[in-house]
Amino acid sequence: MVKNWLITVTVATALVSGAVQASEGHQAAAPQVGDPQAGEAKANGVCIACHGPQGNSIVPLWPKLAGQHPEYIVKQLMDFKAGRRANEQMTPMAMPLTDQEVLDLAAYYATQPKAPGAADPELASKGESIYRWGNPETGVPACSGCHGPAGQGQSLAKFPRISAQHADYTKQTLEHFRGALRANDPNGMMRGAAARLSDQEIAAVSQYIQGLSQ
User: Fold this and answer.
1) Which residue among 8, 44, 97, 101 is least crowded, i.e. fewest CB within 10 A of its CB?
2) Which segments are annotated as binding site for heme c?
C-alpha cells in the first residue's frame, strides 16, 4: 500500500510539474507586442537621421518607413541582424537592437502617416501597365498580384506596403534583386520577377509606385 501510494504521489507530482513547465513554456512562446512609445523614443534617437521624422525620409535613396506593415519591418531588421540581408549602413545599426526594440520600432512606424509622393506622368503611365498586368511576353508578373492594386501589400505574408515609396529607392531595390545583391526574398520571388525587368521597365514602374497614394 505504501509503495503504491508513493508511486501515485510521484506520478502526480511529475504531472503537475510537467503542466507547470508546459504553461511556462506556453507563456514564453506567446507572441511579443511592440510598444509604439518606446519605438518612437528609439526612432527619434537613432533612425531619424536617415529615415526622417515619423519615418518619412527626405533622401530618395533611403526608404520611407511610415505606415509600413510591422511584420515586414521586423523581418527586415532581423534579416540585417542575422546577415540574411547585407547593407553597410543598416547592418551595424540593426545589430545592437534587442528583439523587443525591433518590435517597438515596427509598432511605431506602422502607426505613422506616410508622406505622399508625386510621379513623372510619362514614366508612370508606362509603369502602370507593368504594375497592374506585368509583361506576358517576357514573363514579368504583375506587381499588383502581391503588393495589391494600390500598393498596400499584405501584412501576414510580409509583402511590403510600397505605395508612395521613393522611386529612387524602389529602382535601386529592384536592381539589387535583379543582380542578386539582395537575396532575402521568400522563395526568390522578387529575384525571379526582377530578373525579367528591363532598365526602362524598372524606371517606369518605380515612378508609378511613387505616385500611388494609399
Assistant:
1) 8
2) 47, 50-51, 90, 143, 146-147, 190
